[in-house]
Amino acid sequence: MAVFARPRQAFVIAGVLGLALSATACGTGGNDSDSKADSPECAPYEKYQGHDGKEVSIYASIREVEADLLEQSWKQFTDCTGITIDYEGNAEFEAQLPVRVDGGNAPDITFLPQPGLLKRFADAGKLKGVGADTKAMAEQNYPADWLKYATVNGTLYGAPLGSNVKSFVWYSPKTFKEKGWTVPTTWDQLIALSDQIAASGTKPWCAGIESGDATGWPATDWIEDLMLRTQTPEVYDQWTSHGIPFNDPRVAEALDRAGTILKNEKYVNGGFGGVKSILTTSFQEGGQPIVDGKCALHRQASFYANQWPKNAKVAEDGDVFAFYFPAIDPAKGKPVLGGGEFVAAFTDRPEVQAVQTYLASGEHANSRAKLGNWVSANNKLDIANVANPIDKLSVQILQDKSSIFRFDGSDLMPAAVGAGTFWKGMVDWINGKDTATVLQGIEGSWPK
């Protein structure tokens, strides 16, 4: 899940500037001798041309830093096609998108991080199936395992965009070296390290789950990672599809295992306070005490690389880096939790389909990757274009055939649960409500 913001007006202005630039760079307003097709820098975009002056609106949760990079990633496309991309990022995206759609004010395109929400819109007849060009591009560039998450009743409704690996623990290599701490490779070693750090007078873990209307989602990632580590992948699949009830003892085991860290006053919340301070600490701020030496460990996805101070070196020998969230029994495999967005459309005008197809292409994947702090499962992505060491590590994990990959569970569930009662249940749980009561409440909310 990406949750960054940028004012909508800036993108409108950028789109207008893009049109002005395209007139000279790619001949959008020039004569035949200065046509787009004859412009070398526009040659890769020839198949998307023919929509000069058209506008496509995109609405998503991606804001601030990531939104700026998105704008840059498709700038050449907009310059060369004359299509204006009117982008709006909103912190309350998950709550506001259904309101807009149900109110008849849907955007042309949305980046959906929840397959469960995608299915809801598809079942309601709101989404448009992808066009033939987008379908061909998606099938060529993405593994079938990824496309299944955006397929409903045999129809593909969107290609993946960005991806992320969630099974990471952030730490400070510099601090670890100074303190003589060792990066753990098993769950038992992780707990032993936590005890060692706590004994030294520092709370080992820091966390934050406040995220506006989406408050609670970071805690659901903990439960999903622990479900993959305490149970088989098959049980995980049964859980996310309600093949087993939400209050199954195996789910309770995972929640309680997460609680040995998140609800342990000796372990959290370094730099902020006690356990309940997790509720009021924003997810963006959750790991920041690491750079101040006030905590040592922060479990968060690869996209958290965007949150560190600009002067912090993110590297294996730097100020901050991340290690794989250890398996409980490494002999059973390397479980990996991840997520991503899918480019779905509520309209199917030709220019909308052109944007959809481009965003599924290798050209866009590499354009965005070159700008940093971004990962994709697109097989046309050249790892040489991935500069950030965390991104490289993420791509390696995604491409590692020994990894047992599963998509974020809350994003697979019906939106009322995955982006509703599960999030709220985690808030209640951190606030002191017992495991059985929390899980029973979520189970009771599952759509009949």
From TrEMBL:
Source species, domain of life: Bacteria
The record's family statement is: Belongs to the bacterial solute-binding protein 1 family.
Pfam families in the record, alphabetically?
A: SBP_bac_1
State what protein this is by name: Carbohydrate ABC transporter substrate-binding protein
- Which first-to-last residue range defines the signal peptide? 1-25
PROSITE patterns (alphabetical): PROKAR_LIPOPROTEIN (PS51257)
Which keywords belong to this entry? Signal, Transport
Query: Could you tell me which InterPro entries the record lists for this protein?
Result: Bact_solute-bd_prot1, SBP
- What is the phylogenetic placement of the source species in the record? Bacteria, Bacillati, Actinomycetota, Actinomycetes, Micromonosporales
Residue ranges, annotated region (Disordered):
29-48
